[in-house]
Design goal:
This protein is of the alpha/beta class. It contains 11 helices and 8 strands. It has 2 domains: 158 residues, Rossmann fold (3-Layer(aba) Sandwich); 66 residues, Orthogonal Bundle (DNA polymerase, domain 1), CATH 1.10.150. The longest helix has 19 residues.
Length: 230
């Protein structure tokens, strides 16, 4: 049994990926860039500035900052109210903590959105630590969010599992020294998540729970391989 579990939030605990993608597409369109949703989906969960460097390489750093700021406003105004929590999140957290493990969150979301997500999940009594975008400047696959969560939990990387919905969550966890597992609720295929190093992949958190409790053999991790091909 692992001592700690670090969970991503968007796409893992709350159903927000379509809304995030649409708000980014809206912000890009307002800045004169037409980018298909299918392209943005490839970078869902990646640090925002890195996403824009890949999706609109011609945009300047100032343009990227303006687009991301605009996206945040659009998301909070038009899309955040429609976000719902996935089922069984509270039950999964309860079971893990009852088995003696500790739960943390590691997400680059922040401010109003993060507070909204915490209210939706309604599991504060089972969450021992959080590391969010208010704490760390860089998003995943940079490992600093996961590293901060580990430090707050007071455990070492090999004693923990990073649970997310994207290969970027997996990359951050692996760089921080954790095991990694994933759910399919973020729009990435099982094969992609396995190639990113996840020892277990399931349709949602409830289906993933047995692997978190008892472990499961999986492919050897090579997190840099998927990131180079993205």
């Amino acid at each position: 049994m692992f001592q700690g579990f670090i969970f991503d939030v968007e796409g893992t605990l709350v159903d927000s990926v379509p809304q995030n993608l649409r708000s980014l597409q809206d912000a890009l369109d307002r800045s004169g860039y037409r980018v298909p949703i299918q392209t943005l989906q490839l970078y869902s969960g990646l640090d925002g500035d890195q996403t824009l460097q890949l999706a609109v390489p011609e945009a300047s750093p100032d343009e990227r900052r303006a687009i991301l700021k605009d996206q945040g406003s659009i998301y909070e105004r038009n899309y955040l109210p429609s976000v719902k929590p996935f089922e069984s999140v509270r039950d999964v957290f309860r079971i893990l903590t009852e088995q003696g493990s500790r739960v943390a969150l590691a997400t680059d979301c922040k401010g109003i959105a993060f507070k909204r997500y915490m209210a939706l999940v309604n599991a504060d009594d089972f969450i021992a630590a959080t590391a969010c975008g208010d704490d760390v400047e860089y998003g995943k696959p940079d490992p600093r969010l996961v590293g901060m969560a580990l430090r707050k939990l007071g455990i070492q990387g090999p004693q923990a599992v990073m649970v997310g919905d994207t290969p970027y969550d997996a990359g951050a966890g692996l760089e921080a020294g954790t095991k990694v597992a994933a759910v399919l609720t973020g729009g990435f295929a099982e094969k992609v998540l396995n190639q990113a190093g996840c020892f277990a992949v399931a349709r949602d958190l409830k289906a993933l729970l047995p692997s978190l409790l008892f472990g499961e053999s999986g492919p050897k991790l090579r997190q840099s391989d998927w990131l180079r091909s993205a």
